[in-house]
Amino acid sequence: MRENKTLAEGHSPLAQFEIKTLIPLEVGDINVSFTNSSVFMVATVLAISLFLVMGMRRSALVPGRWQSMVELSYIFIANLIKDTVGSEGRPYFPFIFTVFMFVLFGNLFGMLPYTFTFTSHIVVTFTMALFVFLGVTLIAIAKHKMRFFTFFMPPGVPMYMAPILIPIEIISYLSRPISLSVRLFANMLAGHTLMKVFAGFIFALGMFGIAPWAFIVALTGLEVVIAFLQAYVFTILTCLYLNDALHLH
Amino acid sequence: MSDDTDKDVLDELGTRLEGARNDHIDPSKVKNNDGLQNGNALGLAFRVGVELISAVAVGTAIGWGLDHWLDTRPWFMLVFIIVGGVAGIINVYRMASGYGYAAGYQKENSSTSSDSGTRVDEGK
Question: Complex ipTM, two decimals?
């Protein structure tokens, strides 16, 4: 009974994902309003800039704590690219570093109370995945010209298999941006919903609310780990797709 | 600070740098990061589901689009749902049989072995 009452009051576990228009804007027929999602994207970009610029302000030879964190994130991505793509991946470092920092800070911002997690929206993650996918495909075509299309025909396969195999491979290739975006979006959505659901139990159970409360504490830690892990997974997948595009097997 | 301790510190830094470089040269190190991702059984199950569903979704969308365009409803969609399912199973097979996240045809080590010899000093 109590559950229904809290839901009716607009405290549904999904209320946190609601988009609220702050400044209505329309370009032509397209709604480009400035929403709470936009606020947190801007905040994320500002936080990243602040983190990097302020961290490197002194750029001491022996780094302090803050500078170490900045250098650590740089080295982490630089090594990730080196290990997955190789030295040809170096020109793409700025993009991959940006993707990683944006997703990571977006995820971590969502862990603060009363914030909005923009990575929990499929529109946001799918747009990012689509840009990665299109960019990687264009790089592959620019680099390998027509040879790119041999990607869909594995070597050593008899010709008569081609009519079946090529559509399958194309679909498999096209499913990349979807699996890339759904993985990030679903993890964030599920985690945040779960936290809200269990937080609702705390008051509903009265004195026994201590149990879900303890669970929430553990869950918060897990969510922070997931925030890092999903940013890492998104980045490593981008690197692997880039590796496919540059080397084509 | 005397010259001696400076030299000691530098020597120690040198060995640490060398160790760090050797770490990064080893190409098998990050290739084996499947342990991290596969260690979490729930995460693996989730990945299987996503891979399977996304391929079916793409197949269905292509079929629906072709039907819409050629006015042959529902034939293309029926065919492409099945083709999408096959693609999804191939995706899952590739993922599960040690290809990691890469969607490709060959095992990882053959594609990047040419790069392991070249040293890049990015992380300085």
Answer: 0.78
- pLDDT greater than 90 at residue A13: no
> In angstroms, what separates the C-alpha of B74 from chain A's closest C-alpha?
18
Supply the pTM of this predicted model: 0.79
Decide if B102 touches A, using CB distance below 8 A. yes
CA distance B112 to A243: 9
- Taking the Cβ of residue B96 and every Cβ of chain A, the question of whether any pair is shorter than 8 Å is answered with no
**Cβ-based contacts of B51 with chain A (< 8 Å):** 175, 179
Range of the domain at A98: 7-247
Mean pLDDT check: name the lowest of A109-118, A231-240, B6-15, B55-64.
Answer: B6-15
Question: Is residue A1, in this structure, part of any structural domain at all?
Answer: no
Q: Which of residues 167-186 of A touch B (CB under 8 A)?
A: 167-169, 171-176, 178-179, 182-183, 186
Q: What is the number of domains present in chain A?
A: 1
pLDDT (0 to 100) of residue A112: 92
| A9 or B77, which is more confident | B77
